[in-house]
Amino acid sequence: MAYKILARDDITSESVRMVVAAPHIARKCEPGQFIILRLDGKGERIPLTIADFDRDAGTVTIIFQKVGKTTYHLATFREGDEISDFVGPLGRHLDLGRLGTVACLGGGLGVAPIYPKVRALKAGGNYVVSIIGARRKDLVILEEEMRAHSDELFVTTDDGSYGLRGFVTDQLKLLLDEGRKFDTCLAVGPIPMMEAVCRLTAQHDLPTLVSLDTIMVDGTGMCGSCRVTVGGETKFTCVDGPVFDGHNVDWVETKRRQCRYVPQEKQALERFEKDRGSK
After folding, report:
1. Is residue 135 classed exposed, middle or buried when 0-12, 13-18 and 19+ CB atoms within 10 A define those classes?
2. pTM of the model
3. Residue 210 in 3-state DSSP?
4. Are residues 107 and 146 in the same domain?
5. What digits encode the pLDDT tens for the residues 213-262?
6. Which of 43, 114, 154, 168 is deepest in the core (most CB within 10 A)?
């Protein structure tokens, strides 16, 4: 069974949004879960967060950044093209009941996976304060969607071209220093960003949940590639996560394991670009 791309758009120069026909996944997925796709019979398997879903239409939306061979290849797909394998929903969904006042931080592409959580939190009657960030203004994603489901929305950019100059942690620190009280914090983004959020919230005894994007192969807990240490115990991101207590994550180990295939990833992208250039 192949999965047809029903819509595709470049939401930034680096990020692509695709709406995929996958009714069996759309019927069951919940905020916090993800899919694993493979472009063709020779492709690698990569995990991507479910950024949105429509149960009635039977569609799942993915948003990805062009960073490696497979994502660059996927970015060449157009509306009407088909993805060979599209498996899910995978991972544990996040129970988003009545949490109270929640700070939701999305850094870079992390805004995509934080969005369905924000939407569910708001629908559940929570007070949602969202902080999203990017390197510069033209790389900010889903601002209007986030605003529609947040009681307050703050935007930061590294270069100061839009919103507060700095990182999402800088905006959160400003709010905490003002005496703002939060019951829970959710953070999704690059590992250094989530680690920085956890260092800050630990100082304020603010419970913090993070969503880890580790290297995965099978997505069922069999291969062990996605293992992380949380609270001194070995966990598998694909079946125990991807959401964990950020204050208990071994960030040093997580960063080290995430970099273990960097040379091979670079070589694969170089080969892909060379092959495309020769056609």
Report:
1. middle
2. 0.91
3. strand
4. yes
5. 898 888 888 888 899 999 999 999 999 999 999 999 999 999 999 888 88
6. 168
